[in-house]
Amino acid sequence: MHRAIREVITARRQLEGGGFQVRRPLPSAGMRRVDPILLIDEMGPADYRPGEAVGAPDHPHRGFETVTYMLDGEFEHRDSAGHAGKLGPGDVQWMTAGRGVVHSELPSQRIMQAGGRVHGFQIWVNLPARLKMTAPRYQEVAATQIPEVVSDDGLARVRVIAGESLGVTARIDTHTPIVYQHWILQPGASVSQALPADHNGLAYVFQGAAEVAGTRLLDGQMGVLGDGNALSLSLPASAEGEAQLLLLGGVPLNESVVQHGPFVMNTRAEIEQAIKDYQMGRMGEIN
Predict the structure, then answer these.
(1) CB atoms near residue 90 (< 10 Å)
(2) What is the dihedral of CA 16, 49, 286, 119, to 10 degrees?
(3) Between 178 and which of 11, 108, 130, 250 could a Cys-Cys bridge form, CB atoms 3.0 to 4.6 Å apart?
(4) What proportions of the chain, in percent to the nearest 5, are helix, strand and coil?
(5) What pTM was estimated for this model as a whole?
(6) Chain centroid, CA 107 distance in Å
């Protein structure tokens, strides 16, 4: 049974962190979340001159996961557990905040000093109640290790960050079943992608315009998928250029969600405890 688009949402532009611009299709005025996906931020694309680049300095997280996927540029990150690293084009960081970390995400020193383009995504994935206070975990996967496959006719290409597509399986381990795919469609492309019936699903187009589940989505539009176990992705042969989109999904947790900024828990009391723990330094600090 092929899915259809049941709602289309246009991303809005806003500033986040230290003042970097994002396009945000989720949450929106009409859609708070697509369980278990809490947030989708498209970072940029932004072309910085020397000394202009900004990011997200020290900030806490508890109760969910952040997934950062870079397309262009470089980000450096550090946290209160002593972890540090750098993400470049095509790299992925899947961070399970769990019981809490203080995190910093900033353009690399090279970008800050010389300028350059920054473009990528950060997705927030909710954790079930039983894992809200799990130990923090990082999975960092280099671009060369992300499985990538091309359709038989060569017109569709997909990078499989989480889940399965066209016979390949992602190497990232997720606490609950998650789909995260980056599709690049050339004019004339037409593919059918499985998406288990127990998953919620959505597609976000961020370049060109694509036919998703029978609906044309423009650049900056997100389609929320209805019921079914597969969907179609295509680009008319008459299109002037390629289209790119993210296909996201997961098994819904069906649990209460109480959110206060970077804390996502199940009850107000848990949120109040998270705030207190952060204020008292129990989530540590970045040295």
Answers:
(1) 19
(2) 50
(3) 250
(4) 10, 55, 40
(5) 0.95
(6) 18
Structure tokens, 269: 């009391």
Tokens in use for 286? Answer: 């970045």
The verdict on residue 163 lying in a domain is: yes
Q: Determine, yes or no, domain membership for 284.
A: no
Q: In CATH, what number is assigned to the domain containing residue 62?
A: 2.60.120.10
Side chain identity at 130, as an amino acid letter? R
Per-residue pLDDT of the chain (287 residues; tens, 9 = 90+): 899 999 999 999 988 877 778 999 999 988 999 999 999 999 989 898 898 888 888 899 999 999 999 999 998 888 888 888 899 999 999 999 999 999 988 888 898 889 899 999 999 999 999 999 999 998 999 999 999 999 999 999 999 999 999 999 999 999 999 999 999 999 999 999 999 999 999 999 999 999 999 999 999 999 999 999 999 999 999 999 999 999 999 999 999 999 999 999 999 999 999 999 999 999 988 77
**Domain annotation covers residue 64:** yes
Instruction: Give one DSSP letter per residue of 198-242, joined into a string.
Output: T-EEEEEEEESEEEETTEEEETTEEEEE-SSSEEEEE--TT-SS-
